[in-house]
Amino acid sequence: MTTPEIPDTLGAPGATGTRRTLAVVSAGLSQPSSTRLLADRLADATVRELEDLGHEVRVETVELRDVAHAVVDAMLTRFPTGDLARALEDVTGADGLIAVSPVFTTSYSGLFKSFWDVVDPDALTGMPVLLGATGGTARHSLALEYAMRPLFTYLRADVVPTSVFAATDDWAASADDQGAGLPRRIARAGRELARRVSVRENDGPADPFAATPSFTELLGGN
Q1: Strand 19-26, strand 96-104: pairing
Q2: pLDDT band for position 172 (50/70/90)?
Q3: Which residues pair with 97 in a beta bridge?
Q4: Torsion 146-35-62-95 (CA) sign
Q5: How many Å apart are CA 187 and CA 196, to the nearest integer?
Q6: Residues in Cβ contact with 204 at an 8 Å cutoff, skipping those fewer than 6 apart
Q7: Torsion over CA: 6, 186, 102, 198 (sign)
Q8: pTM
Q9: Buried b (16+ CB within 10 A) or exposed e, 71-100
Q10: Which tens digits make up the pLDDT trace of 15-56?
Q11: Dist CA 85 CA 72 (whole Å)
Q12: pLDDT beyond 80 at 9
């Protein structure tokens, strides 16, 4: 987990921006991991958009492989401890969430599901969430819509319209090429999440129409 220092003056009266915390959950099992790479790219895109909107951003990254044994223990005892307890606090206390899983046998990984099984079922209510997944081929891309999105809908999260799947071949596109393929989808998804995180109010409901996408966005434009 990474916790950059942020000045206490942020969020004070007269400050030009407000503080936002972004939680990133990666369920990759290997090191290096394409799942973590996608999670980092999505986080970078969201942070850029939030900073353009005038916010200071803190990113908390949770690698599930590091707390895998604690997740199993918590499922048995119902009492998360240590690094897992801190990870749960980071995730449930964030202003927005990026959740990325590898796809195994047409669905998210067991570790990914087990982590959300130990999260309080009411903790993600109304939280803006961006979903991502990785797999060997594009055949697995629909797992985002028939498996991952229903999971977070059940948890009453506010899932952004664009989810991002990265197959092995998608990484061949240049990271600087924002006009095509995976980089374009990442940029669009980050923009959608940033807009919802920006208007979210922790002390009350946000304007329900503030994050409504424009007709241009709905038609696939920038």
Answers
A1: parallel
A2: confident
A3: 23, 129
A4: negative
A5: 15
A6: none
A7: positive
A8: 0.81
A9: bebbeeeeebeeebebbbebbeebbbbbbb
A10: 346 999 999 999 999 888 999 999 999 999 999 999 999 999
A11: 13
A12: no
The CATH homologous superfamily to which domain 33-218 belongs is: Flavodoxin domain (3.40.50.360)
Specify whether the CB–CB gap between 16 and 29 falls below 8 A. Answer: no
Q: Which two tokens stand for residue 188?
A: 């669009």
User: What count of residues does the chain have?
Assistant: 222
Q: Produce one character per residue of 40-60: b if its CB has 16 or more CB atoms within 10 Å, e if not.
A: bbbbebbbebbeebebbbbbb
| Residue 112 phi, psi (nearest 5) | -60, -50
Contact, 100 vs 40, CB < 8 A? no
Contacts of 141 (CB under 8 A, 6+ apart): 133, 135, 165, 167
Q: How confident is the model at residue 218 (pLDDT cuts 50, 70, 90)?
A: low
